TrEMBL record:
Domain of life: Bacteria
InterPro entries, per the entry: DUF1254
Signal peptide segment: 1-18
Record-annotated DUF1254 domain positions: 52-116
The protein's name in its UniProt record: DUF1254 domain-containing protein
Keyword hit for Hydrolase: no
Keyword set, alphabetical order: Signal
Length: 343
């Protein structure tokens, strides 16, 4: 998924939504059809690489292997465009598959957002979609034990489609789609347009609020709904390079049933990974024995939870499979008030 920004930039805001942001058309891409144009851009881009009903398995993110800023080190991605016009079945096996793995499904409106988890099977036809006959699939396989074992688990993913007609583009100009996407991103970055991911992902248009729906599509196409994953877009107090520590409560995630987990990834000021010590999972953070865990930054301890960061660095905390959505949203608000402390 080659994008300018990722889902990790989705923000929760209580700022009132203004009506004077720049939503002027770019070519034939308009506010009204942008979500379809963005989907079209993604569907066609993937289909051009591997065709229809065929997997594209990505490699693990590293300082040497990055295709987008704020890359996600937690998982390895597998993507596919699937023809469901005559039905297709999606399955994630549970046998010999002990870690988090899902198939995430979106239609041509960037809606549906069905998630198939380990041990689950889902059959879809065009009647189950809000529009069209094809879906964009983004499977996520947690990286654990080894890259070889992760690839083995990627191979377990099963999608069986009863037809293989190619997706037909809607006639949008690719440069216009990118131009409109950047317009919405600029509205947020320079003019403060709010984004609430919870209001931007849904099964139908009735489940989303239009403003958040369009901006979520621009910032986080193919992002997961809050019922499956939530993100803290910045570490409070990030950016300094002295030895520091961040201590946070352990989140309430469905570890046993759905393989839930959390992690922290750090990036340079430009959003790219710029060190070898840029990631750790929650299991590897320092357990303080009191319901909290800690991470350190530039402390030279050699511990797996000690990050190497540069001036202006930024961090993203990712949480998968919350037990309770609202509880986790409240937890995120708590984290926004917990500052890093110098040691």
């Amino acid at each position: 998924m080659k994008k300018t920004l990722l889902t990790t930039l989705l923000m929760t805001s209580t700022v009132a939504i203004a009506t004077d942001y720049d939503h002027a058309p770019v070519g034939n891409v308009t506010w009204e059809n942008y979500h379809q144009a963005e989907s079209d851009w993604n569907f066609l881009g993937l289909q051009e690489k591997v065709g229809v009903n065929e997997w594209l398995h990505a490699e693990a993110v590293s300082p040497e292997a990055q295709t987008v800023i704020r890359s996600n080190r937690d998982v390895m991605y597998s993507t596919m465009i699937v023809d469901v016009s005559e039905g297709a079945t999606f399955h994630v096996p549970a046998e010999n598959n002990d870690y988090f793995q899902i198939i995430h499904i979106m239609d041509e409106n960037h809606l549906v957002h069905a998630v198939v988890r380990r041990g689950e099977t889902l059959t879809l036809t065009a009647d189950d979609l809000t529009t069209g006959t094809h879906v964009h699939v983004l499977a996520r396989t947690r990286i654990a034990e080894s890259i070889e074992d992760t690839k083995r688990r990627q191979s377990l993913l099963s999608i069986k489609a009863n037809s293989s007609k190619p997706y037909q583009g809607k006639g949008f100009d690719a440069d216009d789609v990118v131009g409109y996407r950047l317009k919405l991103i600029n509205n947020v970055m320079k003019h403060g347009a709010p984004i609430e991911g919870l209001k931007g992902f849904g099964a139908t248009l009735e489940d989303v609020e239009d403003h958040h729906f369009k901006y979520v599509t621009a910032f986080g196409y193919a992002g997961l709904p809050a019922t499956t994953a939530q993100y803290l877009e910045r570490v409070p107090g990030q950016g300094e390079t002295m030895c520091q520590e961040w201590t946070i409560p352990t989140p309430n995630l469905d570890v046993e049933g759905r393989g839930g987990y959390f992690s922290l990834t750090t990036y340079g000021a430009d959003g790219w990974i710029d060190s070898e010590r840029f990631y750790t999972s929650g299991e590897s953070m320092r357990d303080n024995g009191d319901g909290t865990v800690s991470m350190t930054f530039n402390c030279g301890s050699g511990e797996v939870y000690d990050f190497e960061v540069s001036e202006g660095w930024a961090g993203v905390l990712r949480l998968y499979e919350p037990v309770n959505v609202q509880e986790t949203l409240d937890y995120m608000e708590t984290l926004r008030g917990i500052q890093i402390k110098p040691l």
